[in-house]
Design brief:
The protein is 0% helix and 62% strand. The chain is mostly beta strands. It is globular, with a radius of gyration of 18 Å.
Length: 206
């Protein structure tokens, strides 16, 4: 195992009638475990954090979309655990149903560092095929594609794999979702692992 990455991704939507839409802040706070020294022990700590602020206008359509700024902060606990560093970017989101059973969600952003050393594109397509039975079970593809515009040599990363998930709804609007997936990298930039095992847990608040 080359490394571990845990991500806290709180998302909250605020209705904003004066803006004729919703404001949706989303944070990505990584906790990384990586082999940074010559021995076989892992160094653990917080990585660089991301804050996105989407504006989603009211639309009379089954497809919903939003856009807004993105900020990255150098919150890494130590060198080697970081990511994008301090910078700013533009982000967009799209959500909708392709068929009654197949849903799509996508997040895309391009990020630039303040000193010009980083230009990074992240595209995360998410497909969810919902089974008729058992209720709440789905098959998913959910892993980001990346392009490092500043890289020397291979700069594109495209994963290939699938995941299986289950969601439950409870009284009062509460919900719970768990999923497990595995992805390889037929197209990979330098430093990309050979494979990734991914586990997700989401709590939906009323």
């Amino acid at each position: 195992v080359r490394g571990y990455n845990f991500q806290l991704q709180p998302v909250w939507a605020f209705d904003a009638p004066a803006l004729k839409g919703s404001v949706i802040p989303r944070a990505v706070i990584p906790i990384n475990g990586r082999k940074l020294g010559p021995d076989e022990t892992y160094d653990w700590g917080v990585g660089d954090s991301i804050l996105q602020m989407f504006y989603a206008p009211y639309v009379n359509s089954a497809w919903k979309w939003g856009f807004g700024p993105q900020f990255s902060f150098d919150t890494a606990a130590k060198a080697g655990l970081g990511g994008l560093g301090n910078g700013i970017g533009l982000a967009g989101i799209l959500v909708g149903d392709i068929t009654p059973q197949l849903a799509f969600a996508g997040i895309v952003f391009n990020h630039w560092s303040y000193d010009g050393s980083v230009s990074f594109l992240n595209l995360q397509p998410m497909f969810f095929y919902n089974f008729a039975a058992p209720a709440g079970m789905y098959l998913t593809y959910n892993q980001p594609w990346n392009i490092n515009w500043k890289a020397d040599g291979d700069s594109v990363t495209i994963p290939l794999g699938l995941g299986l998930g289950q969601s439950w709804g409870f009284e009062g609007g509460w919900g719970l979702d768990v999923n497990l997936g595995a992805y390889g990298y037929p197209v990979a930039a330098a430093g990309t692992p050979d494979w990734t095992l991914k586990f997700g847990l989401s709590v939906i608040f009323p």
